[in-house]
Amino acid sequence: MTDRRVLVLYASNYGQTRKVALRIADRLREAPADVEVSAIGESPDATAYDLVVVGGSIHAGNHQRALERWMRSHAGALNARPTAVFSVSLSATDEDGDGRVTATKYLTELLSRTGVETDRTAVIAGALAYRDYNPLIRWMMRRLARRKGLPDDTSHNVELTDWDAVDRFGAELVEGFGLRSAP
User: Fold this and answer.
1) Which of 52, 56, 84, 109 would be a feasible disulfide site paired with 11, CB 3.0-4.6 Å?
2) CA gap 163, 169 in Å, rounded
3) From CA 56, how far away is CA 12, in angstroms rounded?
4) Whole-angstrom Cα distance, residue 29 to residue 161?
5) In 3D, which of 57, 11, 73, 16 has the Cα closest to residue 38?
6) Which is it for strands 120-125 and 158-159: parallel, antiparallel or unpaired?
7) Which residues belong to CATH 3.40.50.360 in the chain?
């Protein structure tokens, strides 16, 4: 095991961001690195880590308030060490249109509001958690999905995450932050 300590911290409403955080952690452990994964409400002291990876999801144009509060209150610690931030968004499924640009704008605005300066960022496609939504949200998300040409069958959840892109982000973190062990 390496002496490099990594914190992967996330905020997730319906579980997709948690799944992405766990996948990123798996890639970092392969480096190898000593990785701790934590939900925002259980977050340990960021100053105890060599690298911090923070992720949240976008809902109605905003990241979770708890995520934004945590990032703002820990901006000094995050800016004093290598930090990466990822954002999970349904808009990121739109590779060729305005959706990806919009998702990136939301992430940029989050960083600006919190004062966090990152070394790496990623915008990752999320999921349609139809079965987890309340009836009003399910109806709204179905309408949105239809408009965007996404699956609108609400009888099951639809995962839209590009796991290869998540793995590439994890590999970028390993290489970019020198986590790979010498042969």
Assistant:
1) 56
2) 10
3) 6
4) 21
5) 11
6) unpaired
7) 5-126+161-176
- Class of the 5-126+161-176 domain? alpha beta
Which alpha helices (H) appear in the chain, and where do they start and end? Answer: 16-29, 65-73, 75-79, 98-114, 135-148, 163-176
Tokens at 164, concatenated = 């290869």
In this predicted model, what pLDDT tens digit does every residue of 59-107 receive, in sequence order? 988 999 999 999 999 999 999 999 999 999 988 887 767 888 999 999 9
Inter-residue contact 133 to 141 (CB < 8 Å): yes
What does the pLDDT look like over 107-165, one tens digit per residue? Answer: 999 999 999 999 999 999 999 999 999 999 999 999 989 988 899 999 999 999 999 99
β-pair partners for 24: none
Q: In which band, very low, low, confident or very high, does the pLDDT at 181 lie, cut at 50, 70 and 90? A: low
